[in-house]
């Protein structure tokens, strides 16, 4: 059987194939409310045969969750009605869909005009180390000014906000939950030593730095029950510094990921700029491969699949062979492949791959998401 088109079951969710639409920020939801255009956008990918759609990041029910007025929310009567329309459309097309719950944490202000209010939520009041980044200097000057560290009340409020939004997702009819815990956003900020320098229960050594994301996962698991799956996106790189790492060795990565799986995570979504890049010296294993090897949990690879280079690199990407995807799937190194840019360029990507059709030639307006 074609490894891309074999089914996979995760708790109560059965996927017809291993192709996932990767979450991508779209900013097409005025006042946080997804409209008919958003519903049509997601349905096109379900109509195109994609096994699972993971939505763009959706702000949880907290005032500092997202800083863009056109980023969607998962609370409020109008927003929930909009998401019901999205979910119903995907289901009518035979698809499955989960929302990616999001709190931007230290990266508040990166998507909007810099506004000093409200104060961004940061574990220790720190934005992080500035390294290789795409942010402009104006934002960096503002963002790197330290703020107050999160209080115990802040932490309790955010956990409760994740719970409310997770329950809303169940009520709307989503098929599971995805948590955005990479790229320097709030959950990830507790893992990174450049943003978490606390000395209490929520900081210290690596194991203690996992406590906050673990508590969020536990709370979400209790809220949604035992049937629906939880997908968890993590990364080494940060928006603050593409070269940053939360784990320098496989043993350190095991500390983080084992705790998360024990708390209730079902699928580990390993976000990288290139899916086939070795995660650690001395091994060809990718970050998704290490996630599965260390925990035994299903893992998902993501990063420039079907493209010769990341859009962050110089030059124009060309369509790239999927031989490495097939090889690693066949070897059971990982279980799912999350594809972003190609899903923008070709909504029927899954049908294209099944039929052996050519991948779309690079078009910046489509691959870079200018067109909706």
Give structural notes.
It is a single chain. By secondary structure, this protein is α/β, with parallel strands linked by helices. It is 34% helix and 12% strand. It contains 13 helices and 10 strands. It has helices at residues 36-47, 77-92, 137-143, 152-172, 186-191, 206-209, 211-224, 250-263, 287-295, 323-330, 341-345, 349-355, 364-367, and strands spanning 8-10, 13-15, 19-21, 52-59, 97-102, 177-180, 230-235, 267-271, 299-302, 336-339. The strands form 2 sheets. An 8-stranded parallel beta barrel has the order 3-4-5-6-7-8-9-10, surrounded by 4 helices. A two-stranded antiparallel ribbon has the order 1-2. Helix 1 (36-47) links the parallel strand 3 (19-21) and strand 4. Helix 1 (36-47) packs parallel to helix 2 (77-92), helix 4 (152-172) runs parallel beside helix 7 and helix 8 packs across helix 9 (287-295). The two termini are 34 Å apart. The mean pLDDT is 95.
Stretches where pLDDT falls below 50 for ≥5 residues? none
Strand order within the widest beta sheet:
3-4-5-6-7-8-9-10
Please describe the biggest sheet, giving its number of strands, its sense, and whether it closes into a barrel.
8 strands, parallel, barrel
Task: Give the integer mean of the pLDDT values.
Answer: 95
Gross morphology = globular
- If helices are DSSP runs of H or I spanning 4 or more residues, what is the number of helices? 13
End-to-end CA span: 34 Å
Percentage of residues in strands = 5-15%
Helix/strand order, N-terminal first: EEEHEHEHHEHHHEHEHEHEHHH
Query: What is the number of beta strands?
Result: 10
Structural class: alpha/beta
Helix proportion of residues, in percent?
25-40%
Give me the Rg, rounded: 19 Å
Protein name: NADH:flavin oxidoreductase
Domain NADH:flavin oxidoreductase/NADH oxidase N-terminal: 4-356
InterPro entries: Aldolase_TIM, OxRdtase_FMN_N, YqjM-like
Keywords: Flavoprotein, FMN, NADP, Oxidoreductase
């Amino acid at each position: 059987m074609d490894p891309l088109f074999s089914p996979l079951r995760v708790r109560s969710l059965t996927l017809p194939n291993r192709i996932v639409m990767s979450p991508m920020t779209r900013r097409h939801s005025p006042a946080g409310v997804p409209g008919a255009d958003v519903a049509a956008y997601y349905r096109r990918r379900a109509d195109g045969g994609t096994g699972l759609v993971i939505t763009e990041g959706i702000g949880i029910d907290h005032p500092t969750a997202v800083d863009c007025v056109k980023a969607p929310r998962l609370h409020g009567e109008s927003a929930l009605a909009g998401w019901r329309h999205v979910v119903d459309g995907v289901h009518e097309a035979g698809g499955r869909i989960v929302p990616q719950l999001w709190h931007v944490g230290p990266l508040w202000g990166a998507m909007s005009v810099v506004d000093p209010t409200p104060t961004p939520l940061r574990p220790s009041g720190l934005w992080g180390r500035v390294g290789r980044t795409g942010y402009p200097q104006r934002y960096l000057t503002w963002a790197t000014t330290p703020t107050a560290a999160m209080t115990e009340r802040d932490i309790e409020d955010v956990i409760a906000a994740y719970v409310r939004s997770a329950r809303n997702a169940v009520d709307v009819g989503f098929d599971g939950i995805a948590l955005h815990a990479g790229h320097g956003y709030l959950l990830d900020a507790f893992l990174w030593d450049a943003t978490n320098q606390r000395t209490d229960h929520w900081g210290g050594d690596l194991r203690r730095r996992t406590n906050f994301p673990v508590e969020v996962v536990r709370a979400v698991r209790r809220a949604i029950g035992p049937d629906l799956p939880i997908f968890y996106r993590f990364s080494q790189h940060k928006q603050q510094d593409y070269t940053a790492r939360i784990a320098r060795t496989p043993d350190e990565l095991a500390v983080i990921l084992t705790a998360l799986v024990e708390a209730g995570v079902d699928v580990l979504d390993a976000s990288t700029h290139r899916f086939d890049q070795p995660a650690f010296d001395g091994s060809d294993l990718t970050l998704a491969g290490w996630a599965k090897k260390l925990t035994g949990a299903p893992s998902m690879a993501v990063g420039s699949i079907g493209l010769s280079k990341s859009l962050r690199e110089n030059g124009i990407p060309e369509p790239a062979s999927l031989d490495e995807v097939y090889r690693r799937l066949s070897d059971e190194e990982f279980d799912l492949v999350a594809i972003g840019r190609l899903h923008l360029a070709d909504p029927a990507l899954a049908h294209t791959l099944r039929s052996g059709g050519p991948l779309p030639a690079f078009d910046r307006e489509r691959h870079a998401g200018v067109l909706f």
